[in-house]
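Structure record:
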Amino acid sequence: MAKASARDVLLHPALAGAALALLAVAVYAPVRSAGFVWDDDVYVTQNATLRTLSGLARIWLVPGSVPQYYPLVHTTFWLEYHLWGLDPVGYHAVNVLLHAASAVLLWRLLVRLRVPGGWTASAVFAVHPVMVESVAWITERKNVLSLALALGSLLSYVRFAGLDTGGPPASRARRAWTYALSLGLFLGGLLSKTVVCSVPAVAAVLIAWKRGRLAVRDVLPLLPFLALGLALAFPTIWLERHRVGAHGAEWSLGPAERIVIAGRALWFYAGKLLWPRPLIFSYPRWTIDARSAAQALAPAAALAVLAVLWLARRRIGLGPLAAALIFAGVLVPALGFFDVFPFRYSFVADHFQYHASIALLVGITAGCAIAARAWGPRGRLVAGILGAAVIAVLAALTVQQIRIYRDVETLWRDTIAKNPGAWQAYSNLASHLADTERFDEAIQIASEGVAVAPQIPETHNTLGAMWMLSAARGGVTAARLERAIEAFEDTLRLEPDYEETLFNLAQALAAAGRPGEAREYFERALEHHPDDVAARIGLARALVSVDQADRAEAQLLEALRLDPASAEAHYELGNLLMRRRAFRDASEHYREAVRLAPGDPTLRADLERARDRASAGERLP
C-alpha cells in the first residue's frame, strides 16, 4: 500500500474539519471571562419562562411570553438554565460551539459546491472580528443557532438537488430523505431566527449558478420552504412592531429614504468585512436625506455593481454575481425595508450581517484562490502564506474585540469612547452604575447623556431616575428628589405621554410629600397601562395621603386581582385595614405578604403588631 503523503494527511476531511473547529474555539477562548450584557437580562437572567416546565410550554405556545417568537432559542436557554443556572460560561460555550459548527458546515457546503479556497473562506468566517457581536453576546444565540441550522439545510438541499454530483440521488427514498432533512432543519432555523427565510432564495441562486439557468422543476421543490418562511416572517414583523416597540417617529421613513438606507448599509457591511476597524456595539445613526445626490449614489452604485457582474458573466462566470446577490439578499431584512427595534439607535449593527457576510467572504476568497491557481505553484504558495497571515491578523483582532464583552460597564464605556453620540450607552451605563450604588458616577454619566442628546426624552428620564435612586439610597433626599422631578418634567415636555416617566414622576412627587400631584400622574400612567400593579399601589398610597381611603382600597383590591402574588399590595392593604382598626383582616393580609416575601423584616414586624392588637380584643369600631 502506498504511503500517504503529508499533504494527503493535512487535507483529510476529518482533520481539516477538526482544525477548523479548533481554530474557532481557540480564538474565542477569552469569552469564558465574559458575562451577561445588554438584553441578556430579558433573554436569560430575568426570563421567568426558563424557571419551570410550564414556562417551557409558554415559550412555544404563547407568543409574547418572550421578546420574540424564537422558541428554539429560548428552549436552549431553558435547558442550560436547568444545567448550570446563571453561570454565563456555559451559555458562552454553547455560542462558541455553534459558531464553530457553522464554520465546519460552511466548509463542507463549499466542498460540495466545489468552490475554490473553501477551507480558507470558512476559517476567515470563523475568526473574523465582525462575528464577535453574534458569538460573544449571549442574546445573539438567535444568530449562531439559526445559521448552523440554515447551513445544514442548504447542505442537505445541495445533495437533494444534485448540485454536488451533477444529478440528484439515484434512490427515490434517499432523495426524499435528504429533502425532508433539509426542510426540517430549515424549520428549526426559522424557529431560531426568521432571517433564514432567505434560504430558498439562496438555494435558487446556487442552482442558477451551477446549472446556468433556473427551470420550473428547480423552483417547485422550494415552494414549501418559501411558504414556511413567509408563515413565520410575518408574525415576526408584527411582534417587532407591536411587542418589541419598532414604531414611532424614528421609523417614519418614506420609500426613498429606505432605499438610501439600504444602499448605504450594503456598502457599510462590505467595508467592515474588508476593514473591520473600528467595530462599535452601537454605530452612529445616520441622518437620511433622500434628496441628497451624494446619498443617492450609494444605492445607485450597488445596482451598478450588480449590472456589471451580470454583463461580465460570460467572461468571469456567474460566481461573482451569485455571491453579490446572496450577500444583498440575505441582508434584506436588515436593510431598512422592515422596521426593527435597533433602528431606534442605529441603522446598522455587526450582528445584522452574521449570515450574509459568508457570501462576500467566500466570493473574495474564491477569487483569490482562482487567481493563485493561474500563477501556478508559486502563486499557490504565495496565496497560502497570505491567507495564513490574514487569518492570523483577523484572529488577533477578534481576541481584542472579545474583551469589550467582559461586563456591562466595559461594553458601554467602549461604545461611548468610539461613538460619543450613543445616548443609549450613557443611559445603560448610568443604570448599571446605579445598580452597583455608584450614584454620583451614575448621575454624571446620565448628565453627559442629556448633553449629548437633549432632544431625546429617554436621556432626561434616565437622569431623573438616577437622582431618584440616589435620593432613596444615597441620602440628601429632598434636594435630590427635586432634581429628579425637574428631569422628569423635562422628559414630559419632550414627550407628554412618556409612560415610564409618568410613573417615575408620580413616585418622585409622592416621595417628596406631594401626594395630590402624584395622584394625577399615577392616574395618567394607568390610562396607558391599566394592568400596571405598581402604579395602582402607588395611586393607593397617594389616595390614602389625601384621605380617600375607599378609593385607595378599590385600587389595592384591583391590584390583587391583577396579581394575587403581590406582597406589596397585601402589605398596603394590611396598612389600610390597620388604619380602620380592622386588625384581624389586616393580620391576614400581612400574613400573606410575609408568605410571599419571607425575607422582609418590616412585614413580619407589622404582622406581629396586628396580631397583638387583634388578640387584645380590639375590633372594628
